[in-house]
Amino acid sequence: MKELFFYLLGAGILLCNACAAKQAKLPEMEDELVQSPKPINVYDIINYKDMEDGAEIPVWVSQYLNEGVLGVETLDEYRDRYVFIVENTGINFRTLQQWSAAFSLYQDFPRRVASRIEKRLLNAANQYPDDEYGDFFEASVKAASDTYYRGAARERDFWLLLQYFEEDGVTVGPESYIFLVLISADKSFMQNQILQILNNLELEHKPDKDQTSAINRIKENFFENF
Length: 226
Known about the structure:
Blueprint: H1 2-20, E1 42-48, H2 59-73, E2 81-90, H3 93-102, H4 109-124, H5 129-133, H6 135-145, E3 153-165, E4 171-186, H7 187-199, H8 209-220
Antiparallel strand pairs: 1-3, 2-4, 3-4
Helix pairs in contact: 4-6
């Protein structure tokens, strides 16, 4: 599990860098120990869905590009819903179009919920998650990925064609498509489902006293910053 933790941490750093690349301005790296190439920090939107028909980029897409999922959840229509946005990038439009059409709420969405639960547990942990929570950490993520979430709905999709630049105006790589799929779920309904998962886990090893305290503590405020 500790090897898994380091793997997840490394993957998380790479994911953060990748997600940040789609924003117009990138924050500076806070961890001075992380060495990375000069970041891509500017892009031009070359094309997007229905652009030829005079359509504008939807507000939810702009919010996501600039502020991430939490920015989308601040929109009035999503204040009582959790938003999950799945994205895929590449240079082959047809392949990405097929991916978007084939995206399955039943097969693919549970992994998105499990990832969000995993992130919440990691952010709350004061030590390695398997030391902090015992078997609860791995069991909760696995159970969340095996659950079908009733009430979740695929609402919208969108695509953009972007060209990235460095600060000096030099282009970085070829033009690249980004495909987005927006899924939302009623907050109260999903919270009840997640609490059922967390409260009905069958753990191989009983948590010790400190682990039990940590588990109870995270359950009490699990949906803060979720």
